[in-house]
Amino acid sequence: MRGHPWFTLITVAVGVMMVALDGTIVAIANPAIQKDLKASFADVQWITNGYFLALAVSLITAGKLGDRFGHRQTFLIGVTGFAAASGAIGLSNSIAMVVTFRVFQGLFGALLMPAALGLLRATFPAEKLNMAIGIWGMVIGASTAGGPILGGVLVEHVNWQSVFFINVPVGALALVLGALILLDHRAENAPRSFDVLGIVLLSAAMFCLVWALIKAPAWGWGDGKTWAFLAGAVLGFALFAFWETRVKEPLIPLALFRSVPLSAGVVLMVLMAIAFLGGLFFVTFYLQNVHGLSPISAGLHLLPLTGMMIVGSPLAGALITKAGPRIPLAGGMALTAVAMFGMSTLDTGTGSATMSLWFALLGLGLAPVMVGATEVIVGNAPMELSGVAGGLQQAAMQIGGSLGTAVLGAVMASKVDNDLAGNWKDAGLPPLTAAQSAQASEAVQVGVAPVPKGVPAEVAAKITSVAHDTFISGMSLASLVAAGVAVVAVLVALLTKRGVNAEAGAGVGHI
Q1: Rounded (10°) CA dihedral 89, 394, 65, 115
Q2: What is the 3-class SS of 224-276, one letter each residue?
Q3: Which of 283, 281, 291, 260 is nearest to 498 (CA)?
Q4: What angle do CA 269, 391, 175 make, to 5 degrees?
Q5: pTM passes above 0.70
Q6: Taking the chain (511 residues) in consecutive chunks of 10 residues, what is each chunk's mean pLDDT?
Q7: Do the beta carbons of residue 318 and residue 134 sit within 8 Å?
Q8: CA dist., res. 187 & res. 23, Å (int)
Q9: 3-state helix, strand, coil in the chain (%, to 5)
Q10: Considering Cα of 40, then 44, then 49, then 51, what sign does the dihedral take?
């Protein structure tokens, strides 16, 4: 049983499920946390931002740790730390403690994710690797999409702490399975030293980039602070690239990017995440605030998306094994583009059947991309850099998700700001002051109608109609931009090909 490929897959899937689930499940718990701990809105934002920032900044370095010390040990440390940090959050009695332990969750999650891919790459023979990555991608997709449903059930019927406590038994299970089943694999020419300056430069550059994306909606895209951090990111990446050409054992050998398929796979993951995570960000507001659904009902409306990812990922793995990744990847992004275009047509009266069609098509399009892009990145990297490649894959997805939320959020905000005053006036509503207009715009950007207390029902109905129509116009434009990003991704997908180093796995030395 020890070292068995399929038991290895089950083990890493349990661990990865925790991290993927935590990316979305906490959003449902945020209102309850805010109320219970008397936190500000900015504090609550950091519950999510702290997690993603720590995850994005440390993923590639964590992958290098796995390559250096073995993916088994890195995975077990990641699982243990993630579960412990989750339990600590559940026991926290202040928002500062919650945010602090969320950062620790992100750091340990970063250890766990690339190690899981490194273990799969080393354990499975080339002809079965795509199927394994397909199931791995299915677990991530289903966990990400299923987070709001599980979170809604736990928050409504237990408490917000249960959202975090649930990770403790799951982590314990993954730890026991890992200790019994996982076998350490290390390439003969695995790195033996650390590029400390490279780690510092890359971490600083990633921090500046993700920090700018997180803060841009509050600061404004034209603000000097936003541009200062973006400039810092560019400078950090430039210095990192220069240093990597000078050091004996670089953190990321730049020769990796001479592989056009690998580089295309990284870009494809970024574009996919922009379209998917950026577009999906508004759908939850649309379902809850425009259609008035509860968190559980909103999650259930996304089941077609989850279901098609669950069904599509293993099928995509089998198809990519037979036909190669190029056509499935391009076809998947084309379906994603069509789905995002369809989502731009949603309005206040759209029925569940129409929504389900577009959500299902989105899930069907995403499945081959999750599987294929991962295989292209990891399979085109040398075996001794499989952890770094896994870190690259995950970092690309995190940056893409942050970019999507920030850029599409800016598109939404701009559209709402441009349309709200005119729509308000056309409805015959009394004019707003500058301060009232800014407050109304913020509310409308998340689909909330800014109805003051005590207004007549007729006026309230007009305000609600204006707010929802203006939100829909912003969401439609954001969805069209996401569709455009997906079209660009179709062209990038045509540059991919099967991993030339995939056959290096499942035969390296066991330790």
Answers
A1: 80
A2: HHHHHHHHHHHHHHHHHHHHHCCCCCCCCCHHHHHCHHHHHHHHHHHHHHHHH
A3: 260
A4: 120
A5: yes
A6: 82 87 76 79 73 81 81 92 94 90 91 84 77 77 74 83 91 92 70 76 86 79 89 93 85 80 89 81 82 78 83 83 88 94 91 91 88 80 76 81 79 86 86 82 83 85 90 92 94 83 45 39
A7: yes
A8: 32
A9: 80, 0, 20
A10: positive
**DSSP labels for 284-346?**
HHIIIIIS---HHHHHHHTHHHHHHHHHHHHHHHHHHHHH-SHHHHHHHHHHHHHHHHHHTT-
Q: Which two tokens stand for residue 115?
A: 């190690």
What ranges in 124-195 are assigned the alpha helix state H? 126-157, 161-165, 167-181
Adjacent-strand bridge partners of 211: none
- Do 44 and 166 contact (CB within 8 A), yes or no? no
Alpha carbon distance, N-terminus to C-terminus of the chain? 16
Question: Which of 138, 199, 122, 200 has its CA nearest to residue 387?
Answer: 122
Instruction: Please tell me the distance from the alpha carbon of residue 161 to that of residue 88, in angstroms, as a whole number.
Output: 10
Is residue 426 classed exposed, middle or buried when 0-12, 13-18 and 19+ CB atoms within 10 A define those classes? exposed
The length of the chain, given as a count of residues: 511
Please name the amino acid found at residue 276: F
